[in-house]
Amino acid sequence: MRLHHKARRLALQGLCCLDVQGPRSTDLVERFIDDSDDPLHITHSAKQLLRAVFAGRDTCDAILGRHAHNWDIRRLAVVDRNILRLAAHELQSGDAPPAVVITEALRLAKEFSTAESPRFINGILDAVARELRDDDAGKKS
Fold this sequence. Notes:
Number of helices: 7
CATH topology: N-utilizing Substance Protein B Homolog, Chain A
Distance between the termini: 40 Å
Strand content: under 5%
CATH class: Mainly Alpha
Number of domains: 1
Order of helices and strands: HHHHHHH
Helix content: over 70%
Largest sheet: none
Radius of gyration: 15 Å
CATH superfamily: NusB-like
Shape: globular
């Protein structure tokens, strides 16, 4: 399993826990990540990603909400919502190419969610990536 995927996977699991139990469980979630069998650089990356996505969840939800037509982000399944948040954060940060971010989100959806989720997630993330690309192009012109 690729290193970045392992970090995303751990971050997703932590995000789902924080989404349900709230920020009071942050220490517990970080201990869960630390207790994984993964090397230190993966757990460190997972915790950084977890913190960044959780802190920026309102911003992520806003951009996702513009593209999740007829869906309230807060009413999505916990796993799908957090896969979308994780990917939206990564798309906004520009640290990885959009195709990689979307592929990784679909991989997580296939692993942790329902059979219908990858198609739904792909549609939303494709629209988010397109919006961010268009915004970026508008800033450069």
